[in-house]
UniProtKB/TrEMBL annotation:
The chain crosses the membrane at residues 36-54, 60-76, 210-230, 236-261, 681-704, 710-730, 742-762, 774-792. InterPro entries: ATPase_P-typ_cation-transptr_C (IPR006068), ATPase_P-typ_cation-transptr_N (IPR004014), ATPase_P-typ_cyto_dom_N (IPR023299), ATPase_P-typ_P_site (IPR018303), ATPase_P-typ_TM_dom_sf (IPR023298), ATPase_P-typ_transduc_dom_A_sf (IPR008250), ATPase_P-type_domA (IPR059000), HAD-like_sf (IPR036412). Residues 807-821, 837-850 have a biased composition (Basic residues). It comes from Microbispora corallina. Its main location: membrane. PANTHER family: CALCIUM-TRANSPORTING ATPASE. This is Magnesium-transporting ATPase, P-type 1.
Amino acid sequence: MTGLTDEQAAAVRAGVGPNAVRSHRARPVPVLVRQLRSPLLMLLLVAATVSFFVGERTDAVVIGVIVALSVGLGFANEYRAERAVEALHEHLRSRARVLRGGTLVERDVTELVPGDVVELRLGAVVPADVELAEARDLECDESVLTGESLPVRRKAGDTALMGTVVTAGTGTGTVSGTGVRTAFGAIAAGLGERHAETAFQIGLRRFSGLLVWVAAALTAGVFATNLVMGRPLLDAMLFSLAIAVGVTPQLLPAVVTTGLATGSRRLTRRKVLVKRLVAIEDLADVEVLFTDKTGTLTQAGIALRQAVRPDGTLDPGDPHGPFRLGVLCADPPGSGPLDDALHDALHDALNAGPRGAGTLMREWTPEGWRRLDAKPFDHERRMASVLVEGPEGEPLTIVKGAPEAVLARCRAVPQESRALAERLFAEGARLVAVAMRPGVRELVESGLDLAGFLVFSDPPKPGVGEALRRLAALGITVKILTGDHPAVATGLCGKIGMPVAGVLTGEEVEWLDDAALTEALPATTVFARVSPEQKARIVSVQRSGGLDVAYLGDGVNDALALHRADVGISVDTGADVARDAADVVLLEKDLGVLADGIVEGRRIFANTVKYLLMGTASNVGNMFSAAAASAVLPFLPMLPSQVLLNNLLYDAGQLAIPADAVDAEQIARPARFDLGLIRRFMLVFGPLSSMFDLAMFTLLLRVFHTAPPLFRASWFVESLATQTLVIFIVRTRRTPFWRSRPATALVIAVGAVVAAGVALPYAPFASELGLAPVPPAILAAIAVVLVGYLVLVEVAKRRFRTAPSPRLRRRPPHRRVHRRATPFSRGLPPRPAGVRSVRRRAPAGRGRAG
């Protein structure tokens, strides 16, 4: 098979379209529709239309303009966030190995067309429906389509279905269907883009629900009161709706998306890509980080250090020595499962000679040897094997893999060989055992003779110790999950200065039930020789204890654990299935880069909470004041259009909050959304704001004897100034400006809003807005009230922060639905419900390992 040429593929693609269910393109119309979904905005538009036709045309135009500006601000920010997501997905393209013109190349999965010949390897996500021409021990996980937990064996003539994952073996076949013309595409097209809510999204929804109840109560009360007082029905309705809009944080989605989009751009510059913007907030919650070892704590520059025979002597290059046998068993460069680094190290040594070997291996080449059969590496057997035929026609089975697995299949292993393996492990070396069985013309992985060991080195990554200390300072506990020997992992920990509280092996984990494993987790730092299922189980049990868990991994064996973690983290060079399962993708596999991402998530979280606290501190209080004043004053304290304009100016000034600086203590520990804190803040600072509003009302009526237009203009200025300037108090636990300086952008934005509010009563169109120029004496009184309010808020803030609060409850176990992998980073939605969720259970009667 030679496959199609690029030109032929392009011609077919022009007719059938790209191999994608949907694209992640930012489209303005859906974003605009989402902005118009607010029932309050729709009611205001209806009310403005009625006002226009009954003669109140000025109010109608003013309300219409204000609503349009509010929608425009929200649209601009959400569309900008959509563009940021589109840019991120451009970075996250999955690749497939395809024959083009007889040459095996890598192409973006969206470029595949029917007729392409593709190669399937361990860990690959099947990129389209593929009719298999060849299949060697090929097994596919089809749970994405069927929900069945066990892999399905596929043979030549079968069809490997798009979206399934190769869990064993290899295969080659022809693409028979792409995009929506596949079984996966048909399911995915009907799923939409629904994702399980994160804890932060749940918190925002509950907060919005709280304010909706407050707004509903105020609206109903104000409307009934105004009707009782004999005010016109239209005026009463407009004022009630304006109060509801004033209480509701209309630009909360815009502030959140602006913060997330800004954060995503910063993270991209720091080599962190976030597949969903809300995952940035999840990073802020992380308390425990499970990570693999190779490439994260080590350089991943694996090199063959030496090849030794079973008695410990160096391999001089014997025909049946471990080095030559290891090369014969290795896949060709770049073609092994996930381009196996150990295989590449063997081929590098073949060209340069392994250090410490008795002879240079470059004098020998594997030419003349023919591969008859092969069984690729998998994570259950932990070994790979080949059946080869030598130059003289003699058959030879070669097996290489984890020493424990290989030695168990050997006929006789000298005790000195076992001692040698333990000694090399204790030195921190990565060890591969090599065994053989000559004379049998079929691949048999038993009755083997030990040929020796291949000793690889993978030194610690520079700066990893500092990165671990930085994570510890952020309140994050780091634990290692590895398939390596425990001595290798603990030896590495000693080199990088990582304290080891305890070690559990996969065999010991298997004997522990969930309760015993939960008890063992706090005292365990290293989990060694663990299988993919055990990794996933450890992550699940850790989460069930109420902690937020991140998992960092890039291999096929990490996919299950990535699914189970609160935040799945992979790298752009990782296996397709790992990148698809992850929420966050690192462009550089470095714990320091991950720490940057966590800090950025906490910064965004802190700035979002600032907006919420400010809204509850003064905005809610001002609306309570307006509602109370409307019940006792002979006129409305503000006209509906003035309430809406006040709210629009206030919200516009807060769009700079995402760029604000954050105090060090606000990012020192994992962040959690605490609705109870916000509710208490509202109950304390809302009445405090209303108290100063009532004082202002008294001054305006009893001292200055203001008429309605001047009363409204004066309170408009005072209300806008108090609820806007209070951000400088609530944004920090420290002394404002002195020990915590806000961002310049925030100072400018807030200053501009206050200046606009003061200037509006003097504008030529002020009378159209129902405002009158404010005399200097009243401005001075407003300044005094404002200073008194800010000082009292600062005093109350200090008492509020130091007062004991109810203990923060941990989130319930498994707070959100397990995520499922998106088979391709571009164009495909999450896996359907019902896919497997493996939970390993200890066999009956087993308890804590003895």
